[in-house]
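[Q] Does anyone have a clean structure-token version of this?
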Amino acid sequence: MKLQIAGVVIELQGIAPELLPENTRQFASSSTLEPDLSYQFHLQDELPVPDDSWRLLYQKESISVYGKADLELRLLFEPTYHTLYGVYVERDDRHIDVYYARVNTDELKIDTIFISCLSLERHFARRSCYILHCAFLAYKNQAILFSGPSGIGKSTHADLWCKHIADTHVVNGDRCLITRNPDGTFEANGWPVCGSSQICHIEHYPIHAIVFMGQSPTNQVRELGLMQRFQLLNMQLMVNHWNPAATRQAMDWMLDFAQHVTIKEYHCNMESEAPYILGRSLGFDF
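[A] Here you go.
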């Protein structure tokens, strides 16, 4: 089976399509192109562990990352009980083995579990494409991305736009993949993980603006300096900080991105006027 996400062709071997999450299956592709990434799945009763040739780079409850030259190996854990469910091993920059615990096969249908087995954020970052934590709204064939910490009201504000402003819909309620076109413009692309929103569509639109949300009894749009924009992006963009080279590349990308895309902060209530105030500040004529 093949997937295609933002033009990247991904081959999956050793796993039946019906085991994949529904949102991932939306990205199924009949492309005859040579895959950019090829994954070989191994459903096993016992999972391998890294030998002494691998060096521990990073560790927390849900993941341990090991490195060897330019390659990575990841141990993937269920964080509550620290149970190992998957092992991701790179053979080279295109070919990956994924060892998955057979006893947890049903959980492969969970978006976050399955996508964690692919470590796609690493491979897209190599292509200067990054995943932003946001509610991805499409308005008149343009992307408006509402970002900020969990619980700040991103999805609620996106719903206000859909309720009050015509020609608006949510593409993804939790994330988007940002890519750059040959002409230097940036696009937001659908992504196969959408959090609790359950809104996941395969669409892409040029980015009109990113808005970092805040809560306030009154509606206030705030202009931001370059370093403020950079810092806010850094908090919500998915970056593998255990990799110094990848981190430097991401920092350079964010600085460039922050200079070429409209980024504002909006502290607001959730009343009907809130989307109109923001929209007019972004140049829309309602």
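[Q] Thanks! Anything notable?
[A] The chain has a mean pLDDT of 96.
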